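Help needed: design a sequence for this.
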């Protein structure tokens, strides 16, 4: 079987060749929102073969991994594809952030692991938002466009998805926060729509998890924003020479806030709807 995806800026086309028996696992696990069966000339070629009781993974005809577990070899494949695509976003700033689109405008929700990026993405998609990525925020510092990176959503134990549904999708055992848990790959379309086009940045939110079942949104000033951005950009060298100009342009084009957020799944439907509406509206300064 053959399939391919195209992403990046400049765009890179990645092709996959694998046994027919792996078609569902791979197409549901490696950027399912972007995969197609179009016959295009690839920039990078991956091949998975089964030999002597093991799955072998090749990148451009060079073996990179081998494993007896098909789930593990697909996990290795996906992370190599992630790295390939991220490398091809050469001029975009990279944030550990969820990025979503609403009415053709982009929103970044920046936060460390455990701050609720994936949970918020899932719940906002059910409110009509479109997913760009639940893990990577890619922002062009010149035109302030947010780029899509809709890899599959990794469902962890705290996400309220029933066990029967989970069993329909690929899983992998991973060690996170000193615990080993089963993680499931869910296609983003399970939760709602994705966007595969770049959109202009409208707002940035820095996420802070809180225990109570209410949320709070607080506007941020330029100095506070600058300090937080410096800690959040993983490739700040892209704008090192023009950082002050970038901050000035950012405040002309977008608004920046702190979002103090409990577990979105614990919010009552009316409160969640209110949050969804408030995120896109003008928010007065406190």
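Sure. Designed sequence:
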């Amino acid at each position: 079987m053959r399939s391919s995806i195209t992403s990046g800026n400049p765009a890179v086309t990645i092709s996959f060749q694998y046994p027919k028996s792996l078609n569902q696992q791979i197409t549901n696990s490696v950027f399912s929102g972007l995969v197609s069966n179009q016959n295009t000339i690839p920039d990078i070629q991956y091949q998975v073969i089964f030999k002597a009781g093991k799955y072998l993974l090749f990148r451009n005809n060079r073996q990179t991994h081998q494993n007896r577990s098909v789930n593990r070899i697909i996990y290795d494949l996906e992370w190599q594809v992630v790295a390939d695509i991220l490398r091809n976003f050469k001029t975009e700033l990279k944030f550990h952030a969820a990025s979503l689109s609403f009415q053709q405008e982009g929103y970044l929700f920046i936060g460390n692991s455990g701050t609720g990026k994936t949970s918020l993405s899932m719940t906002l998609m059910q409110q009509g938002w479109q997913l760009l990525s639940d893990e990577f925020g890619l922002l062009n510092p010149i035109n302030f466009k947010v780029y899509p990176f809709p890899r599959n959503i990794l469902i962890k134990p705290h996400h309220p998805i029933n066990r029967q549904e989970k069993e329909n999708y690929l899983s992998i055992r991973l060690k996170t926060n000193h615990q080993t848990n089963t993680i499931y790959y869910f296609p983003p379309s399970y939760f709602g729509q994705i966007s595969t086009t770049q959109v202009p940045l409208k707002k940035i939110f820095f996420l802070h998890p809180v225990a109570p079942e209410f949320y709070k949104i607080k506007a941020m000033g330029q100095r506070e924003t600058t300090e937080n951005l410096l800690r959040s950009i993983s490739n700040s060298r892209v704008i090192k020479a023009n950082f002050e100009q970038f901050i000035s342009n950012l405040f002309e084009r977008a608004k920046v806030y702190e979002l103090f957020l409990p577990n979105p799944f614990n919010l009552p439907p009316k409160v969640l709807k209110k949050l969804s509406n408030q995120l896109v509206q003008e928010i007065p300064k406190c």
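Residues 70-87 form the longest helix (18 residues).
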